[in-house]
Amino acid sequence: MFKLAWTPFLAAFSVGLQDCDDPEIAALCLDGIRCAIRIACIFHMTLERNAYVQALARFTLLTANSPITEMKSKNIDTIKTLITVAHLDGNYLGKSWLDILRCISQLELAQLIGTGVKPRYLGSGGAGQGSSVFGGGSGGHGGGASQDSVLDPMELTRPGLPMDQKRMALLQESMGETSSQSVVVAVDRIFTGSTRLDGNAIVDFVRALCQVSLEELANPSHPRMFSLQKIVEISYYNMGRIRLQWSRIWEVLGEHFNRVGCSPSEDVAFFALDSLRQLSMKFIEKGEFANFRFQKDFLRPFEHIVKRNRSPTIRDMVVRCVAQMVNSQAANIKSGWKNIFSVFHLAASDRDEGIVELAFQTTGRIVTQTYGRHFLALVDSFQDAVKCLSEFACNACFPDTSMESIRLIRHCAKYVAEQPQTFRDHNMEDQTVPEEDRVWVRGWFPILFELSCIVNRCKLDIRTRALTVMFEVVKTYGASFRPHWWQDLFQIIFRIFDNMKLPERHNEKAEWMTTTCNHALYAIVDVFTQYYDVLGNLLLDDLFVQLHWCVQQDNKQLARSGTNCLENLVISNGTKFSTETWDKTCQCMLDIFKTTLPEMLLTWTPSKEGGNHENVQASDDPEHRSKDEVQFNSLKVKCVVQLELIQTIDNIVFFPATSRKEDAENLAAAQAEVAPAPHASQQQPSQQGSRQQQREEQLLLHQLGRSLSLDQQQEEQGMYGFLSSGQLLLLVDCLLESHRFAKAFNAHGEQRNLLWRAGFRGNVKPNLLTQEAQSLACVLRILFRMYRDEGRQDAWHTVQDRLIGVCREALQYYLSLATESHRESWDSLLLLFLTRVQRLDDERFRAHASVYYPYLCELTCMDEKPAIRAVLRKFFLRVGTAFNVSHH
Length: 888
Hints:
- With 888 residues, the protein is mostly helical.
- Among the domains are: 1-116 and 167-196; 657-671 and 719-883, no CATH class.
- Helices cover 70% and strands 0% of the residues.
- It contains 37 helices and no strands.
- The protein has helices at 2-19, 23-42, 46-59, 73-88, 97-114, 165-176, 181-192, 199-217, 226-237, 243-261, 266-285, 294-308, 312-329, 337-348, 353-378, 382-393, 399-418, 420-425, 438-457, 460-477, 483-493, 506-530, 532-552, 556-573, 579-595, 600-603, 627-654, 658-673, 687-717, 725-747, 749-757, 769-787, 796-815, 820-824, 827-838, 842-860, 866-882.
- The longest helix has 31 residues, at 687-717.
- This is Putative guanine nucleotide exchange factor.
């Protein structure tokens, strides 16, 4: 019935209310509209309800186009009827709350006029213009009144219609009824009575109130905050609702605070923030049950505001609000910690010192104090805390804060180490992670990952500190890491060497390689040495790949470090290597040898773009280096790597410094042989002189014997005994290839002159004399050592053939040398060769001497140094004895 008759009823009630001023008729019409709304609400007739409520709202004149000077008593009664509807049918009003709350918002202005308080802006534009009959707003906040909001009263009517004192008095008398005690109390009951609304109705009510609040704030010059204040009030009134209902309410309120908090008006945003702070404190005081996450919801607007609002004042206010929560309610905060760290994370990148300092101080207090008392409540947000500290560290404007942030991250590692069970037992949001891996995923990994991010993002001093702390954490706590954790960790660490992540500018890339990559490489080897039992089978192959990458870069320091780290790794852990591991190690050295052989030295020709090649290396701008300069730099690095790798093999096989000591001892022994022979005509030395000479000879023999004993001990410390004969001969092949390349280059005078003129080595004619001599010396040491090793008898025949061939080739080459400087580079090599040959037993000595004899005879015709002649003399004396051609 009502479905069919509601439109005629509405027309009748509307005409009667509009055209008739009789109070009784008006009362009947209003009562009819109220009853119609009641029927529509009971039967959930949305269209009919909305139509009647909108009609009632229009007759209040609060949202109509008519000026408020035309308001009569029937309009006041309409307002009262609308309030009654709100009281009685609140649970059924749905979207009609919007019309009711709009009227109440404008009623607040009418009350100001009725009480004689002049609003700031009482324009006459209609609701269709985005403002009410009273205009866009009133001053102040809270109840909406402003004691300073005084404007000319002419704004109270339509434009151009003057307002005299008499009319103003009549208007105030008319509006005074709206400020009666009954109306004020009734309006207030709408908000206090919101507690009686059901779960759906309260959401509709809050949504409508937020919409009205936005309309009030829409006026950029005179925003009103009446509804915003009411939002805070109803939130207090409804604090006792269950969390399920509050979650739905906060979906609306949170979005509203997001928008209002980012208002261009700082006054509005400030008031919204203060309101949000009050609500948040109230919610936090109530605490939070386990497995609930409501704190995350009502703290999220703080994140949104600090992220979107660029006003320093508002951002500072957000940080202060959150800091106050932490300082006063830390014990009650549960899921809200994530939002708190998110706010501080956003503040950490700010350029305002006050904002950064306050955020950092509060974060530091959480890590150093709150963690100790409430770590269980904070474990879910542990990753967020570490990420927040990382962001502080990456703020280049405040280096002291950066350093302190890294220290706090180091401090966080202590909590993970001391309370691993907390991470395992705590209910995680992601249940897919196995229990035993939770401490890694939620604890160790965030710490190490964020430290690596600092390394990748920050300047030299900060990233160096972060790198140091990262490896300190690994070395200190790595004993508890599982094998697959190590694999994840080294994926992070090797990102430091990732070409795609390196700086693009040459200067920055060179600095990165020389400092950070270099530092990381040594630290990685230290970690490998400390935890080799775990890491050896897991990651040694990856480490060899990384070392190979380092020596291939056109950076002398990094390339040198690559070979040094390979040496340290093998010397420190070689005793634990399996045969397979030694094969991989030797293959790694072989690969490095081959890829770093500077073959282009033999074939280089000037490029057409080079122009004047005498200035190839003179470019000061690395970004505009010539092609030749780039090639020359690469070739220089390869030459360095070849030398370093030769020394590395020598140190690995025989222990560092052993070969240098042997060379020094060989020279000392040879020089001791150099003594002026007594002439036949001279007197025989005195008996005292003979005894002195005998003592000196005995002392020399004692020193030589002690040095030989020390040499043997150091050889035992080297890795020689752990390498198979095949592996040693593979290294010999590498060294010989390097040696023969150096010989070929040193003999190519024309190519060396070409490179010299192009400025390859500045004003020095390029040569590879050191590479030529040291590679051959290492070959001889390895072969002679194998030759007298009783444990390698099966390889003696092969070693003897290789040794005789190498020595013959070396003597032939030495005799062909034309320059004195070139021969001088072979002095220690000749002493080594002659000394080692003389230590052979008679049978082996005869086999070798019969091959070398003619070459050494040729050597006597050359102008050699006294030390070499002395050792050569001993060789020939030994030949006489070994071949029975003399008696001695």
